[in-house]
Amino acid sequence: MIDTHCHLEMPQFKDDLQEVLLRAKEAGIEALITIGSDLEGCKGAIDISIKYDFVYAAVGFHPHDAKDLSEDIFSQIRSWISESRSNKSVCGGKDIPKIVAVGEIGLDYFYDHSPREIQRAIFAQQLVYAKECDLPVIIHSRDAREDTIRILEDSGITKGVMHCFSGDPDMAERVMRLGLHISLAGPVTFKKATVLKEVAKMVPDDRLLIETDAPYLAPDPFRGKRNEPAFIVNTARHIAELRGVTPEDIDRITTVNAKRLFGIGTPEAARISYKIRNSLYLNITNRCTNKCLFCMRYQSDFVKGHNLHLQSEPTEKELEAAIGDPLMYSEVVFCGYGEPLLRLDVVKSVAAWVKQRGGIVRINTNGQGNLINKRNILPELKGLVDSVSVSLDAQDDETYDRICEPSFSNAFPAVVDFIRDARNYIPNVQATVVEMKGIDIEKCRKLTDALNIKLRVRKLDEVG
Q1: Number of domains in the chain
Q2: Distance between CA 92 and CA 396 in Å, rounded?
Q3: Taking the model in full, what pTM does it have?
Q4: 370 is in which domain, residue-wise?
Q5: How far is it, in rounded angstroms, from Cα 391 to Cα 403?
Q6: Is residue 421 within 8 Å of 390, Cβ to Cβ?
Q7: CA dihedral defined by 128, 133, 137, 142, rounded to 10 degrees?
Q8: 140 falls within a domain
Q9: Which end of the chain has the least Cβ crowding within 10 Å, N or C?
Q10: Between these two residues, 141 and 298, which has the higher pLDDT value?
């Protein structure tokens, strides 16, 4: 995991920083971003990032200290960032600091340690600079929702994170529409944080980050104690429970997001097999016979932190090697960023290999397998496939053609026929539909009820 927000330079860590960082490593923390909030804090963050290779720094002026940001100090901050980006040494000739963001910046109308008009001016000034140097911003907002959003909108900023988010789902939606991430900290684990728990459930995978804000806001069961990066594991565990996934999934999702936002580490390589919960998914093609308006592959290459953008289609042997022991998983699912039944022979061969070893096989399909292969393929899947999930995604031909843009004419009746006929060959059959404007869920339900098939309603932009 990556703790995207902590304050290692603060006096609470002065006596045992090395031990704190060792515990973070032992807890599986891959990287930390320590955040400056005033001149001394920025210096401290840079010094620590130089000393420890897995620590990165952010520099900026917190709204509490906005009144103290002079042009000379701002010039120093700009100099640090410029020198870092141009590979020059700073801070006593030591190694290059790893400054990855401008922050912590924003507005705080709860304490009002700086006059509000000064807070707003300094916030806007730092946003302008972050945009100029193409760095993400780390934003603090407390009791200043409308002004924060207005200034962000005016700035044109599209890269950054609302740190230690404490707003409601509506605020989360508004800042995510600007392109920002939502970072959750220890308070999400508190028993009475019901609104924050709702936020934790609704943030899309590709917008989610986690942090500690150490030494503040320790999660349960450490609430009230000094927080430290190792405690992020408790926050991740709680978020995983809220979202119905595993801590491993949250680890992977948030790590990929942090790496992409802050430019930390190496990009995730494309995967032909990927685990979500205890299911193993097989990504066998990126080709598809639909161009669905809601398809995630037009928004991102990633699902649950896995890169699914294939450079080439895997062979049967590569897929078998990627599976390993099928009994390690509750099921093996043919489902990637394309339609698996475009490679019917591969599906049949690998499914037979899985079944021979006692595994369970599921296929996620758009239901056009018969159109693709110009014959009824369902008898060929008998005994090889335990369950099939078919994307119905509309209540009638006109809606299906408009939303899914199929390559075939009369695709919708063929999908319905595929669902109806699948019951004769595959033990478990379900249809799915995405909840979005233009799709009548109740009419879809009536259709699947008439087919005696279970319907699962999927949320828009939620995959896996």
Answers
A1: 2
A2: 70
A3: 0.80
A4: 273-459
A5: 12
A6: no
A7: -20
A8: yes
A9: C
A10: 141
